[in-house]
Amino acid sequence: MGFFLLGAIRMSNFDPEWWRKIFDELYLATDARSIANTEITRVEVDLIEELTEAEADDFILDLCGGQGRHALELARRGYRNVVVLDYSFPLLACGIREACEAKLNILFLRCDARCLCLKESSIDHVVIMGNSFGYFRNDEDNCLIISEVARVLKPGGKIVVDLVNRNYIVSQFRPQSWHEADDDLIVCRDRKLESNGIVVREVVLSRQKGLIRDITYFSRLFKKVELLNIFRDAGFREVSFIDEFTPHKTRGDYGMLTNRTIASAVAG
Fold first, then answer.
1. How far apart are CA 266 and CA 145, in angstroms?
2. For the chain, how many structural domains are there in total?
3. With pLDDT > 70 as the criterion, what percentage of the chain qualifies?
4. Which of 11, 80, 205, 267 has the greatest number of beta carbons closer than 10 A?
5. Residue pLDDT, tens place only, 152-185
6. Which structural domain, as residue segments, surrounds residue 31?
């Protein structure tokens, strides 16, 4: 497969509720290079530990955590009160199975991150990893997530957010990419830069079954000043950033997970 052409991205085909549909078993296969790589997860959890300075009995929320890969690693390291919250039934089910098999005590919950099903000041630290923040074109929805995090965090609790590195995406923009996810699946991506984000059309082809996915999604590309304002408006302080974070040892186009910015802040 030397090249491909998906055609222009048509915003008339863009469903703003795309995030309700894409995160399933197929997603675990198409993005396995990043989200099913144990070594990468360990590097990311090393960073979580460094930034939060969490203790074993702290309550840690893996928000928009999918199958809970970071929560599972935290639990393996001895953290006793880890919670995964996500909207996807398939990913939560996958995480529950893995936790049961490993005999790890992790609570998995399903709800919308804009309205957390948790009590006020009940969590010590919140992590939002794997570019799971910024799915909404309307920043009111993105801000709601950070406000909800501020509500559930204890005073002095920390938030860590793993985001697309805006400067990298803009300077190294690739309108198209493709990779072989496994012996059967080929993932093709057509990208379009907008003023405040990136729109991606993803087509997944199976050598055995043909076309099995054609979906368009959006990721907000935040400027640092925008993130600073979002955090401060929600009541956070000591906002800091780490640029050029990538846990991948080999160079390549890993989509939104190629090069990231890590934002952290303190509640209250």
1. 15
2. 1
3. 92
4. 267
5. 999 999 999 999 999 999 998 999 999 999 999 9
6. 12-164+222-267
Q: For tokens 């923009």, name the residue.
A: 173
Q: Where are the alpha helices (DSSP H) in the chain?
A: 25-30, 32-35, 38-52, 69-76, 89-102, 139-152, 166-171, 224-233
> For residues 13 and 170, what is the distance between their CA atoms, to the nearest angstrom?
24
Cα 80 from Cα 115, distance rounded (Å): 25
**Tens digit of pLDDT for each residue in 218-255?**
999 999 999 999 999 999 999 999 998 887 677 766 66
pTM of the model: 0.92
> Phi and psi dihedrals of 71, rounded to 5?
-65, -40
Write the CATH number for 38: 3.40.50.150
In a domain, 102, yes or no: yes
State residue 86 phi and psi, 5-degree precision.
Answer: -155, 165
Q: Look at the block and give the residue holding tokens 């199976």.
A: 206
Alpha carbon of residue 251 to chain centroid: 20
